[in-house]
Each structure stands twice: as C-alpha cells, then as structure tokens.
Request: fold
Amino acid sequence: MALGDNKGGFRYPGYNPLKVADAPTGISAEGDSELDVSFTAPADVGGGAITLYQASTTTGVTATSATSPVTLSGLTNGTLYNVRVWAINGFGPGPFGTGSGTPVAVFQRAVFAGGNGNVMDYVDITTAGNATDFGDLLATNRFLGAFSSSTRGVWAGGDNTNVIQYATIASAGNTTDFGDATVLYRNGIGGCSNSTRGIFGGGYQGGYTATLNYVTIATTGNAVFFGNLTVGRYGLSAVASPTRAIFADGEGSGGFKNILDYHSISSTGNFSDFGDTTVTRRGVCSSSNATRGIFGGSSTYPGSAPYSNVLDYITMATTGNAIDFGDATALFTTGQSAAGLTKALFSLGNVGGSYVNTIDQVTIATTGNATDFGDLTVARSAGGACSSAHGGI
Reply:
C-alpha cells in the first residue's frame, strides 16, 4: 500500500474513505525486545466488519493481528519507539492511532521451594544452568501451592498446615510469614495468580477438598474464601492468564481425574468445567505464559506404569480439551514447574521412585519434547515453584 492523500494515508483497492473504520484508541506498547501494541477497538467500524489490525513503528517494523495486541518484534531494549495502529475492513485501512513504548528486559527468575526439606533455590529462566541457593522456607514442607507477582513469591499450605509465607523474588533470603489459610491443606494443592491476586486450594483434609482461598499478593494477612472446585481432589496443579485461573487433574472420589476447572481471577465464586487433560492423573505440575498452559508428570493408576512423561497443553482463553505437547526427558511425578515469557521449566521430582534434581525445559509457543535445563541444588519432589514473569502477569 503506497502513501496517498486519503484520511488513512493509503491507496487501497476499493478504498472508500466514508466506509473505513475509525482509529483505534488507548494505544499502549510494552515488551522485552518487542512491543505488544495494545489498543481499544474503534466503536465505529465503518461500512463493514474489521478484518485486521496493522501496527508499525516509525523505523519501519510492521505486524498485523486480528485482535489487540499487535506484536512488533526484533526491537532494541531501551530504545523509545513511536508506534501507530489502524483498523482494516473491506473498504480499506482507516486512520491510525498513535502511541509510544520502550522495550525493556524483563526479570525472569524461577524459585523452587520445599519438597523433602525446606530448601529454596533459583534459576534465570532465560539461561540454562544449575540452580543457586535462595534461602529456606519457614519449615520443611511438601505439596505447597505456589504463586507470585513480578516481585513477590508466595507459598501456601502443604503438609497439614494453613501457613502462608512469602519472599521477594529478586532478593535471596528466607521466607516470612504472610498469614493463614482458612483451612488446613494437605497432600498436594494447586496455586496460580495474576499480577495482584493469588488463588490456591484443593488437597485432602478428612476428605477430598474443593475449597479455594485467595490473597492479595502485595499485602500480608489471612486468606479469604474464594469458591469451590467442581470436584474436591488433591495432587492437582494450576495455571493462569492475566484474567483466568485454571486447575487441573488430581485424585478425588472414585479415583484419578483429568478435570480442568476455570474461573475469572478477579471475581470470587465456584469454578466451572473447562475440558479434560489427556492423562488421568495426580501429582501433576504446571505453568504458563499469558496464552498457553502446560501440564506435566503424574502418578498413574496402580497396576499401570507408575509415572508419566506426558506433557499436554491448553490455550487458556478458549475452553476445551488439552492437546499433546511432547514428552519430558523421563517418567516423573510430583515435580515443580515455573515459566517465563517464552519458556517453561519442570523439575522432575520423583523418577522411578527416587528423588532427582533434574530440570527440563520447553518452549511454550511450540510443541515438542523437553530438553535438559540444569539441576536443582538438592534432589527432591513435591515442592512448589513460581516465577517473576509467568503468564498471569
């Protein structure tokens, strides 16, 4: 499309300036080595439905998307870019809205905590290698629910406790008391969060537990009742986008489950059915970026192979069943998982009945088998991991 003299600045086959869409508004742009250009769609779409949005920088980087945001890739961190974005319908491109943004490197640290001990260690998600000691939990604990904001990691519940504890992810050190959960949680609970609210629950306490609690991560204090899972169960895990929490799998009444439950993070209430994972299991771990959640590892039914190496995934914005992703490097159960912007890590926990310190890695946007990332400082299973750059943020 060449520059012209119409209101959108383009010549376009069939162009009609009276029927193009208005300019998008509320332009914002942020990212790491790229800019995700977000906007509000125009209320007046002109003479036909909008089919595409196009964004560009004044330096010539251009991209398109059917919805907000449009991602402009290959940019330099620390450089201010002026951007513009316009809507396209069957009558041509409309006028553009403008904004600006500066890509910045995102701090991507994963913290693995607890299991068979009170050890905490961390890795830089962007760089493969062995973990470094972070500090200690308040006490030895297993089966914790873990979640985080970009600055604070939180670990809740565990082996017959209602203790919630936290640490500052950027500063190695021991955890500090946060408050108490509304119930004692046991035997494997799930936890996930967006940038402000953490949700955790499930487990077993005199019966399979469906109870979910939540906290505001930036403050301290006791948890508040959130709602219930569709089925009480333990040995489950959870993932989150910025808007949606999803809990997966576990063992409940009648045996192992492949249930996926979901709810909006911002409003309390009972969860609803999302779909099914590909494996009926407990002892699963999971993590996500902003769009895709990945689940891995499990105990399986007695009489079958004791563990699983299956990795499967969901697109969190769309309900439905999980899809096969690939395989972990070993059959494992009760691992820990945390993710950054593009990569998910799985500590394998228990392999063949023995504790291991192996960490696997996968690229979230693609499918395929996992590869080796490095090792934890101590072999262990059934802890809880979180990160400063997961999908809920």
Observations:
- DSSP finds no helices and 35 strands in the chain.
- The first strand starts at residue 25 and ends at 30.
- Residues 109-387 form a domain with the Neuraminidase fold (CATH 2.120.10.80).
- Residues 131 and 376 are 5 Å apart (CA to CA).
